[in-house]
Amino acid sequence: MIVILQSNVTEEQIDHVLQRIEALGLQHHLSRGTFRTIVGIIGDEEKLQSEPLHAIPGVAQVIPVLPPYKLASREAHPEPSIVDVSGVKIGNGHLGMIAGPCSVEDRDRMFRIAESVCESGANLFRGGAYKPRTSPYAFQGLGEAGLKLLREVGDKFNLPVVTEVTDPRLVELVSEHADMLQVGARNMQNFALLTEVGKSQRPVLLKRGMSATINDLLMCAEYILSQGNMNVVLCERGVKGFDSLTRNLFDVAAVPLIHNLSHLPVIVDPSHATGRPDLIPSCALAGLAAGADGVHIEVHDCPEEAKSDGPQALLPDQYRQLADQMKELAKLFGKTVSPLPEKMA
Ligand code: PEP
Ligand code: MN
């Protein structure tokens, strides 16, 4: 930690700053420049996290040397992590191909969509049984019946399933049926939910909040990791932009940026990032080219009948075409797509 003192700091104030540091059992190194005096603090930076050093008279700025997300950081874990979702690997050269409808819908349709995305090469099936909707009057998901249906579909195709959990009280139930728990953008900072999914041993797909910085996202991942669950995959799904021509603003630079800062795998979700089927393929490929460890795409066989997010769904044939391109690009980058598990546990 580096403390920069105000230009008009007094000798008494400097002494007081040094005393506060000593009282915490840490060492200091004072450096007097022509215009500014700075204090380097040597020792466990964590001891200082909760200390309001800014509030000490004479202090102008406090600059941490280490990031506040300790477990999520590259420093803590230099090698990229691999998250194993019931046999399907994501990260460090393993590509997650996640596809499915926005919501779990009727039975035949679910089997139909799963069969087609599976044939195209998807290795994780996704559908929401609990939907966090902007309007309380919109379709809220099939709930437990949807979870059971999703499990049945997963078992039929040996395809691990991922679904959203919206409430800490539902973590146990959703974990019984799903291979991976999604925490959606609207719940990224639901700390009670993050703590609960952290206690579960299911892998977690944590989506970036629509107004969240990368630092916010990594701090939320830290909540999960700090509970002992190290199986976290991050997802860039676009942030609020000013242009209404796209649903969100796809922040493709977030992918290499997160890879620089953290060992956790990062996937992209061009479906929610753009909201437009005509832009999804290019953005999926751009995400992969930027180093994404996976791509999530919403697919529906009849978007006009979809219970949610129909306008942004790709048709099964469109997904097949894109999946072929993604696999080619993955090969070029030396990435592999985990085959489906022989038999799921
Ligand atoms: C979803 O995945 O269907 C969803 C609601 O996404 P997000 O949380 O990114 O808005
Ligand atoms: Mn959706």
TrEMBL record:
Record key words, sorted: Transferase
Classification via Pfam families: DAHP_snth_FXD, DAHP_synth_1
Origin superkingdom: Bacteria
Domain DAHP synthetase I/KDSA: residue ranges: 87-332
Gene Ontology terms, MF aspect: aldehyde-lyase activity; transferase activity
InterPro entries: Aldolase_TIM, Class-I_DAHP_synthase, DAHP1/KDSA, DAHP_snth_FXD, DAHP_syn_2
DAHP synthase ferredoxin-like domain ranges (all copies): 1-66
Listed GO biological process terms: aromatic amino acid family biosynthetic process
PANTHER family referenced in this protein's UniProt entry, alphabetically: PHOSPHO-2-DEHYDRO-3-DEOXYHEPTONATE ALDOLASE (PTHR43018:SF2)
Entry protein name: 3-deoxy-7-phosphoheptulonate synthase
Species of the source: Rhodopirellula maiorica SM1
